[in-house]
Design brief:
single chain; alpha/beta; Rossmann fold; 2 domains; 5-stranded antiparallel sheet; Sporulation peptidase YabG; Peptidase_U57
Length: 294
Amino acid sequence: MKQGDLVTRKSYGGDVVFKIHEFRQQQAILRGVELRLLADAPIRDLEMAPQIDPLEALGAMRPKWLEAMRRSGAGAAPQAQSDGWQSTEPAESSKPRPAYFELPGRVLHLDGDPNYLRKCMLLYNELRVPADGYYVAEANMADALYRLLPQLQPDIVVITGHDGLLKQRWRTYGDITQLTSYKNSHNFVNAVRVARQFEKNRDVLTIVAGACQSHFEALMQAGANYASSPARVLIHALDPLCIAAKVAFTPIKDTVNIVDVIGLTHSGLEGLGGIESRGSYRRGVPRIEYAIRK
């Protein structure tokens, strides 16, 4: 058994497949393959799983919400004749309506897992969501945002990676209200605070934050628009992307339907929650014919 192997935990009935991140004495630090979970286990508790390339496993996943997302907005422009885009010309006028161009919200995605990040970037591209992605260890995300936000000025920030309740501390003290009971929630909270200091208006900068079992209340209080995990459940690797893509293609005059968009995710309202927030999608005229060459 070595670093990078895929394993399950005997004591949990092999319910989750992990990748061995590193060894610490007789303990293994584990990262979920499909779930954003960080865990540790005694080496003797581990059992080998089929050794499939984690990126291939993620690549084989076609999220159930992907087609629904296309139909409802992301990946397909909202209807051109919605409010504000009706022609003021008489119905019999032969004057052609101007062709418009699209500006979906731009995403800055920070991820603590490189495999998840690569899959997310492929899906952003498939859904036509402009996105910049960076693999950053959870402990370094606040510093990374301090540098990246002024440079990229995104409309949406995704702050995610791996998290989980510290089993020993939680069983000893039974207190899930303390940030010290979580593996990475304090790092996500620090990153959200930096992002919110950069832009205080939650309708100008939408923040999606958290991972498996993250401290939902602390993330929301720090300034997130959407966060995990209200019921401290495990969330799917692609759930934060689902929220970001929907925000990117919701018109700025509309608020995102919280229940509908979270209902599309794998974990639902137990895994993700949020507040009423505006979308980031804009249209303009006339259509841009030439891209600027750098």
